[in-house]
Design a protein that fits this description.
It contains five helices and two strands, in the order H-H-E-H-E-H-H. The protein folds into two domains: 102 residues, Rossmann fold (3-Layer(aba) Sandwich); 32 residues. Helix 2 runs parallel beside helix 3. By secondary structure, it is mainly alpha-helical. Strands 1-2 form a two-stranded parallel sheet.
Length: 144
């Protein structure tokens, strides 16, 4: 699995008319642009959507996504708002439930070694992208 962070879109480049019909007009442009991207089928390549219940509009986006089944897998996680032992334990349970949901839906087993391998791979990829970016910053870049 590969995670993709939704970042919405530049609202100047995206007509939010449909999203405005589905979301409250006072919802932030980030959430409305995410809604517009999924409604407009720009995210059809996704197999799943995971949201954090960070605010009411984010929850509403999840409700919309879940109700209309824009992706086969949909999951929401409660995000702690406090930094204490009880909050840490609650979040640990949320992550465990998320892991179980992924394993069940995608028929995979997520183990510590696989997670460590994935972390190493992502760290190496980020390192290579940094090197690539440095090459592009040169006076006469070997890549454009």
């Amino acid at each position: 699995m590969m995670s993709v962070r939704l970042h919405g879109a530049e609202t100047a480049d995206l007509d939010l008319e449909e999203a405005n019909a589905w979301m409250y007009i006072n919802t932030c442009s980030f959430i409305r642009s995410c809604a517009q991207l999924v409604i407009g089928k720009h995210l059809d390549f996704l197999d799943g959507f995971v949201a954090g219940s960070t605010c009411d509009p984010a929850r509403r986006l999840w409700d919309l996504w879940n109700h209309y089944s824009f992706t086969p897998f949909v999951h929401i996680m409660s995000v702690p708002r406090k930094n204490d032992e009880r909050a840490h334990e609650r979040f640990r349970l949320e992550v465990a439930a998320f892991k179980e949901a992924l394993e069940t839906f995608f028929s995979v087993r997520i183990c510590d070694e696989a997670l460590l391998d994935s972390i190493r791979l992502y760290n190496r990829t980020r390192e290579l992208f940094r090197k690539l970016h440095e090459l592009k910053k040169r006076e006469a870049p070997p890549l454009t």
